[in-house]
Amino acid sequence: MPKLIAGPIRLHRLAAGVDSEPYRRFSVTPLSPTIGAVLGDIDLRAAIDDETMAELRRALLEWKVIFFRDQHLTGPQHRDFASRWGELEVHPFLPQGETPEVVRFAKGVDEKGYENMWHSDVSWREVPSLGSVLRAVEVPPFGGDTLWCDMYSAYEGLPTRVRDRIDGLTAVHDFSTSFGALMTPDDLAAMQERYPAVEHPVARTHPDTGRKLLYVNSIFTTHIVGIDRDESDDLLELLYAQSRVPEYQCRFHWEAGSVAFWDNRSTQHYACSDYYPDVRVMERATIIGDRPA
Predict the structure, then answer these.
(1) Which residues carry out catalysis?
(2) How far, in Å, CA of 15 to CA of 212, rounded?
(3) Residue of 166, 196, 264, 273 with fewest CB within 10 Å of its CB?
(4) How far apart are CA 219 and CA 120, in angstroms?
(5) pLDDT digit string (tens) for 118-127?
(6) 214: which residues sit within 8 A by CB, 6+ positions away?
(7) Are residues 95 and 104 in contact, defined by beta-carbon separation less than 8 angstroms?
(8) End-to-end Cα separation, the chain, in angstroms
(9) Alpha helix positions (H), 174-228
(10) What does the DSSP assignment read for 102-129?
Protein backbone atom coordinates (compact mmCIF):
# COMPACT_ATOMS: atom_id res chain seq x y z
CA MET A 1 0.00 0.00 0.00
CA PRO A 2 1.60 3.34 -1.04
CA LYS A 3 2.16 5.94 1.63
CA LEU A 4 -0.08 8.99 1.72
CA ILE A 5 1.46 12.33 0.82
CA ALA A 6 0.50 15.08 3.23
CA GLY A 7 -1.07 18.15 1.68
CA PRO A 8 -3.94 20.60 2.07
CA ILE A 9 -7.49 19.34 1.69
CA ARG A 10 -10.74 21.24 1.79
CA LEU A 11 -12.45 20.61 5.12
CA HIS A 12 -16.23 20.31 5.30
CA ARG A 13 -18.09 20.73 8.59
CA LEU A 14 -21.48 19.76 7.15
CA ALA A 15 -22.76 17.45 4.45
CA ALA A 16 -22.94 18.80 0.92
CA GLY A 17 -26.03 20.96 0.44
CA VAL A 18 -26.54 21.56 4.17
CA ASP A 19 -25.99 25.07 5.48
CA SER A 20 -25.21 26.09 9.03
CA GLU A 21 -28.04 27.88 10.81
CA PRO A 22 -27.93 30.26 13.79
CA TYR A 23 -28.34 28.82 17.27
CA ARG A 24 -30.86 30.67 19.41
CA ARG A 25 -30.93 28.63 22.62
CA PHE A 26 -27.22 28.82 23.51
CA SER A 27 -23.96 30.35 22.37
CA VAL A 28 -21.49 28.41 20.20
CA THR A 29 -17.72 28.93 20.29
CA PRO A 30 -15.91 26.68 17.78
CA LEU A 31 -12.57 25.06 18.63
CA SER A 32 -11.64 24.17 15.04
CA PRO A 33 -13.10 24.53 11.52
CA THR A 34 -14.97 21.18 11.51
CA ILE A 35 -14.97 19.60 14.95
CA GLY A 36 -15.55 20.78 18.50
CA ALA A 37 -17.55 23.69 19.91
CA VAL A 38 -18.13 25.00 23.42
CA LEU A 39 -21.82 25.72 24.11
CA GLY A 40 -22.58 28.44 26.65
CA ASP A 41 -25.65 29.86 28.39
CA ILE A 42 -27.16 26.46 29.13
CA ASP A 43 -27.57 24.48 32.37
CA LEU A 44 -27.64 20.70 31.91
CA ARG A 45 -29.08 20.30 35.42
CA ALA A 46 -32.27 22.12 34.44
CA ALA A 47 -35.18 20.77 32.43
CA ILE A 48 -34.38 21.02 28.72
CA ASP A 49 -37.32 21.82 26.46
CA ASP A 50 -37.89 20.22 23.07
CA GLU A 51 -36.68 23.22 21.06
CA THR A 52 -33.39 23.30 22.96
CA MET A 53 -33.02 19.54 22.51
CA ALA A 54 -33.51 19.96 18.77
CA GLU A 55 -30.76 22.58 18.65
CA LEU A 56 -28.47 20.38 20.72
CA ARG A 57 -29.01 17.51 18.29
CA ARG A 58 -28.17 19.79 15.39
CA ALA A 59 -25.06 21.07 17.16
CA LEU A 60 -23.88 17.53 17.85
CA LEU A 61 -24.24 16.57 14.20
CA GLU A 62 -22.58 19.78 13.00
CA TRP A 63 -19.66 19.89 15.45
CA LYS A 64 -19.34 16.14 16.28
CA VAL A 65 -18.33 16.94 19.86
CA ILE A 66 -19.89 19.65 22.01
CA PHE A 67 -18.53 20.95 25.32
CA PHE A 68 -20.09 22.58 28.37
CA ARG A 69 -18.35 24.37 31.26
CA ASP A 70 -19.39 24.64 34.93
CA GLN A 71 -21.88 21.77 34.85
CA HIS A 72 -21.51 20.27 38.33
CA LEU A 73 -23.83 17.32 37.80
CA THR A 74 -24.47 14.48 40.19
CA GLY A 75 -24.26 10.95 38.85
CA PRO A 76 -28.06 10.67 38.52
CA GLN A 77 -28.26 14.08 36.78
CA HIS A 78 -25.51 12.95 34.40
CA ARG A 79 -27.46 9.77 33.68
CA ASP A 80 -30.71 11.65 33.18
CA PHE A 81 -29.20 14.09 30.67
CA ALA A 82 -27.61 11.28 28.65
CA SER A 83 -30.83 9.25 28.70
CA ARG A 84 -32.64 12.07 26.86
CA TRP A 85 -30.71 10.87 23.79
CA GLY A 86 -31.56 7.18 23.99
CA GLU A 87 -31.13 4.00 25.99
CA LEU A 88 -27.92 3.85 28.02
CA GLU A 89 -25.55 0.91 28.13
CA VAL A 90 -24.20 -0.75 31.26
CA HIS A 91 -20.54 -1.41 30.49
CA PRO A 92 -19.50 -4.99 31.31
CA PHE A 93 -15.83 -4.24 31.97
CA LEU A 94 -15.51 -0.78 33.54
CA PRO A 95 -16.14 0.27 37.18
CA GLN A 96 -19.42 2.04 37.94
CA GLY A 97 -20.01 5.44 39.47
CA GLU A 98 -23.13 6.37 41.44
CA THR A 99 -25.41 4.58 38.98
CA PRO A 100 -24.86 1.45 36.83
CA GLU A 101 -25.16 3.50 33.62
CA VAL A 102 -22.30 5.83 34.57
CA VAL A 103 -18.76 4.44 34.57
CA ARG A 104 -15.95 5.98 36.60
CA PHE A 105 -12.36 6.49 35.49
CA ALA A 106 -10.23 7.26 38.56
CA LYS A 107 -6.51 7.69 37.87
CA GLY A 108 -3.67 8.69 40.15
CA VAL A 109 -0.68 7.20 41.92
CA ASP A 110 -2.15 3.69 41.96
CA GLU A 111 -3.38 3.61 38.35
CA LYS A 112 -1.96 5.38 35.33
CA GLY A 113 -4.08 6.53 32.42
CA TYR A 114 -4.21 4.07 29.54
CA GLU A 115 -6.79 5.57 27.14
CA ASN A 116 -4.08 7.31 25.12
CA MET A 117 -4.85 5.54 21.86
CA TRP A 118 -7.26 6.73 19.19
CA HIS A 119 -10.54 4.85 19.42
CA SER A 120 -14.33 4.91 19.24
CA ASP A 121 -16.07 3.63 22.37
CA VAL A 122 -17.44 0.08 22.33
CA SER A 123 -17.02 -0.47 18.59
CA TRP A 124 -16.70 -4.15 19.59
CA ARG A 125 -20.44 -4.29 20.28
CA GLU A 126 -22.83 -5.59 17.63
CA VAL A 127 -24.71 -2.33 18.14
CA PRO A 128 -22.08 0.27 19.12
CA SER A 129 -22.83 3.57 20.76
CA LEU A 130 -24.44 6.71 19.41
CA GLY A 131 -22.36 8.87 21.68
CA SER A 132 -20.77 9.37 25.07
CA VAL A 133 -21.22 12.05 27.73
CA LEU A 134 -18.05 12.52 29.80
CA ARG A 135 -17.90 14.67 32.95
CA ALA A 136 -14.81 15.92 34.78
CA VAL A 137 -15.09 15.29 38.54
CA GLU A 138 -11.49 16.05 39.54
CA VAL A 139 -8.74 17.25 37.24
CA PRO A 140 -4.94 17.53 37.55
CA PRO A 141 -3.35 20.99 37.89
CA PHE A 142 -2.22 20.72 34.28
CA GLY A 143 -2.35 18.12 31.52
CA GLY A 144 -5.03 15.48 31.06
CA ASP A 145 -6.54 17.02 27.92
CA THR A 146 -8.62 14.97 25.46
CA LEU A 147 -8.42 15.17 21.67
CA TRP A 148 -11.10 14.28 19.14
CA CYS A 149 -10.75 13.53 15.43
CA ASP A 150 -13.31 14.22 12.71
CA MET A 151 -13.60 10.86 10.94
CA TYR A 152 -15.52 12.38 8.02
CA SER A 153 -12.44 14.46 7.22
CA ALA A 154 -10.24 11.41 7.82
CA TYR A 155 -12.20 9.54 5.14
CA GLU A 156 -12.49 12.47 2.75
CA GLY A 157 -8.75 13.15 3.05
CA LEU A 158 -7.88 9.74 1.64
CA PRO A 159 -6.85 9.50 -2.03
CA THR A 160 -9.62 8.27 -4.30
CA ARG A 161 -7.77 4.99 -4.90
CA VAL A 162 -7.80 4.24 -1.16
CA ARG A 163 -11.46 5.15 -0.74
CA ASP A 164 -12.29 2.89 -3.67
CA ARG A 165 -10.26 0.08 -2.08
CA ILE A 166 -11.99 0.19 1.30
CA ASP A 167 -15.57 0.85 0.19
CA GLY A 168 -17.52 -2.37 0.69
CA LEU A 169 -14.90 -3.94 2.99
CA THR A 170 -15.67 -4.96 6.55
CA ALA A 171 -13.36 -5.26 9.55
CA VAL A 172 -13.50 -7.31 12.74
CA HIS A 173 -13.85 -5.50 16.09
CA ASP A 174 -13.05 -7.39 19.30
CA PHE A 175 -12.69 -6.42 22.97
CA SER A 176 -10.26 -9.28 23.65
CA THR A 177 -6.97 -7.53 22.94
CA SER A 178 -7.87 -4.65 25.27
CA PHE A 179 -10.26 -5.50 28.10
CA GLY A 180 -9.47 -9.19 27.70
CA ALA A 181 -5.74 -8.78 28.25
CA LEU A 182 -5.99 -9.04 32.05
CA MET A 183 -8.64 -11.78 32.20
CA THR A 184 -8.04 -15.40 33.06
CA PRO A 185 -8.52 -17.80 30.12
CA ASP A 186 -11.82 -19.03 31.57
CA ASP A 187 -13.18 -15.51 32.16
CA LEU A 188 -12.07 -14.43 28.70
CA ALA A 189 -13.81 -17.39 27.08
CA ALA A 190 -17.01 -16.65 29.00
CA MET A 191 -17.00 -12.98 27.97
CA GLN A 192 -16.18 -13.84 24.35
CA GLU A 193 -19.27 -16.03 24.33
CA ARG A 194 -21.36 -13.10 25.58
CA TYR A 195 -19.65 -10.53 23.33
CA PRO A 196 -18.30 -12.30 20.24
CA ALA A 197 -16.19 -10.42 17.72
CA VAL A 198 -18.28 -8.50 15.18
CA GLU A 199 -17.85 -7.14 11.67
CA HIS A 200 -18.50 -3.49 10.78
CA PRO A 201 -17.89 -1.57 7.55
CA VAL A 202 -14.42 -0.05 7.22
CA ALA A 203 -16.16 3.05 5.87
CA ARG A 204 -19.63 3.42 7.39
CA THR A 205 -22.41 5.83 6.51
CA HIS A 206 -23.72 8.05 9.29
CA PRO A 207 -27.45 7.35 9.74
CA ASP A 208 -28.36 11.01 10.34
CA THR A 209 -26.09 12.91 7.95
CA GLY A 210 -25.65 10.37 5.14
CA ARG A 211 -21.90 11.12 5.06
CA LYS A 212 -19.24 8.43 4.84
CA LEU A 213 -16.52 8.17 7.46
CA LEU A 214 -13.71 5.88 8.60
CA TYR A 215 -14.83 3.35 11.22
CA VAL A 216 -11.72 1.41 12.23
CA ASN A 217 -9.62 2.06 15.33
CA SER A 218 -6.35 0.76 16.70
CA ILE A 219 -7.74 -0.54 20.01
CA PHE A 220 -10.65 -2.70 18.90
CA THR A 221 -10.18 -3.41 15.16
CA THR A 222 -8.17 -6.59 14.55
CA HIS A 223 -8.22 -7.16 10.78
CA ILE A 224 -10.05 -6.55 7.52
CA VAL A 225 -12.12 -9.46 6.28
CA GLY A 226 -11.39 -11.22 3.00
CA ILE A 227 -7.91 -9.90 2.23
CA ASP A 228 -4.39 -11.13 2.99
CA ARG A 229 -3.39 -10.44 6.60
CA ASP A 230 -0.24 -8.53 5.58
CA GLU A 231 -2.29 -6.28 3.29
CA SER A 232 -4.88 -5.89 6.05
CA ASP A 233 -2.21 -4.80 8.53
CA ASP A 234 -0.70 -2.31 6.08
CA LEU A 235 -4.06 -0.89 5.07
CA LEU A 236 -5.25 -0.54 8.66
CA GLU A 237 -2.05 1.23 9.67
CA LEU A 238 -2.58 3.72 6.85
CA LEU A 239 -6.18 4.27 7.96
CA TYR A 240 -5.25 4.58 11.64
CA ALA A 241 -2.76 7.29 10.69
CA GLN A 242 -5.62 9.48 9.45
CA SER A 243 -6.79 10.08 13.02
CA ARG A 244 -3.36 11.50 13.84
CA VAL A 245 -3.64 14.39 11.34
CA PRO A 246 -3.85 17.64 13.37
CA GLU A 247 -6.03 19.37 10.75
CA TYR A 248 -8.80 16.87 11.54
CA GLN A 249 -8.64 17.34 15.33
CA CYS A 250 -9.69 19.51 18.23
CA ARG A 251 -8.27 19.51 21.76
CA PHE A 252 -10.13 20.26 24.99
CA HIS A 253 -8.68 21.30 28.34
CA TRP A 254 -10.74 20.02 31.24
CA GLU A 255 -11.88 21.91 34.30
CA ALA A 256 -13.87 20.42 37.17
CA GLY A 257 -17.50 20.45 36.02
CA SER A 258 -16.69 20.38 32.31
CA VAL A 259 -18.77 18.04 30.14
CA ALA A 260 -18.05 16.68 26.67
CA PHE A 261 -20.68 14.99 24.51
CA TRP A 262 -19.37 13.36 21.36
CA ASP A 263 -20.82 11.41 18.47
CA ASN A 264 -19.06 8.02 18.59
CA ARG A 265 -20.16 7.33 15.04
CA SER A 266 -18.28 10.25 13.46
CA THR A 267 -15.35 10.75 15.85
CA GLN A 268 -12.48 9.06 17.59
CA HIS A 269 -10.83 10.37 20.75
CA TYR A 270 -7.53 10.20 22.60
CA ALA A 271 -7.04 10.95 26.31
CA CYS A 272 -3.59 12.39 27.04
CA SER A 273 -2.00 10.44 29.87
CA ASP A 274 0.55 13.12 30.74
CA TYR A 275 -0.55 13.90 34.30
CA TYR A 276 0.80 10.95 36.37
CA PRO A 277 0.96 10.84 39.40
CA ASP A 278 -1.69 13.57 39.72
CA VAL A 279 -5.34 12.63 40.13
CA ARG A 280 -7.84 12.69 37.28
CA VAL A 281 -11.40 11.45 37.91
CA MET A 282 -13.96 11.31 35.07
CA GLU A 283 -17.41 9.78 34.70
CA ARG A 284 -19.04 8.67 31.44
CA ALA A 285 -22.49 7.63 30.25
CA THR A 286 -22.77 5.99 26.85
CA ILE A 287 -25.86 6.01 24.64
CA ILE A 288 -26.68 2.89 22.61
CA GLY A 289 -26.74 3.63 18.88
CA ASP A 290 -27.35 1.64 15.71
CA ARG A 291 -25.69 -1.17 13.79
CA PRO A 292 -23.14 0.38 11.38
CA ALA A 293 -23.99 0.23 7.69
Answers:
(1) 119, 121, 269, 284
(2) 10
(3) 196
(4) 9
(5) 999 999 999 9
(6) 151, 154, 155, 158, 202, 203, 239, 242, 243
(7) yes
(8) 25
(9) 185-194
(10) EEEEEESSSS-----S-B-TTTTSSS-E
Contact 30, 250 (CB under 8 A): no
User: What percent of the chain is modeled with pLDDT above 90?
Assistant: 89
Q: What is the DSSP letter of 88?
A: B
pTM of the model: 0.95
Angstrom distance (rounded) from CA 290 to CA 130: 7
Q: What is the CATH T-level fold of the domain 27-287, as seen in this structure?
A: Double-stranded beta-helix (3.60.130)
Strand partners, 282: 105, 136
CB 2 within 8 A of CB 165: no
Which residues are 138's β-sheet partners? 281
Query: What does the DSSP 8-state code read for residue 213?
Result: E
DSSP state of 68: E
Q: Which of 68, 11, 53, 6 is nearest to 35 (CA)?
A: 11
CB pairs under 8 A, 24+ apart, for 158-165? 158/4, 158/214, 158/239, 158/242, 159/4, 162/1, 162/4, 162/238, 163/203, 165/235
Q: Residue ranges of the chain with pLDDT lower than 70?
A: 1-8
